[in-house]
Amino acid sequence: MDKATTLAEAKKHRENEVLEYQINIDNYRLAIQKAAQDPDMVEFKAQLESLLTSSIHEQKKAQIMLEVVTEQLNAMG
């Protein structure tokens, strides 16, 4: 396997990773809204908020790696 093929596969992986984080982020935001309506779900809402913060942070890291891989592919022509 050559560098271009490896980078292309890495790019696809990072794109999927960013998308998966976005799906989770969207789900957590919606679930937080629903949990906020139920006084019994205070602890669950706090857990969701923690997961949301973590997912946003991890998505940013994945986006940086996607940008790096894309830049390397672009430099190869």
Describe the secondary-structure layout.
Blueprint: H1 3-35, H2 42-76
Helix pairs in contact: 1-2
Taking the sheet with the most strands, its summary is:
none
Distance between the termini: 18 Å
By DSSP (H or I, 4+ residues per run), the number of helices equals 2
Amount of beta strand: under 5%
Approximate shape:
rod-shaped
Overall domain count: 1
Question: What integer value in Å does the Rg equal?
Answer: 17 Å
Low-confidence stretches: none
The strand count comes to: 0
SSE order in H/E notation?
Answer: HH
Q: Taking all residues together, what is the mean pLDDT? A: 97
Please bin the fraction of helical residues.
Answer: over 70%
Specify the structural class.
mainly alpha
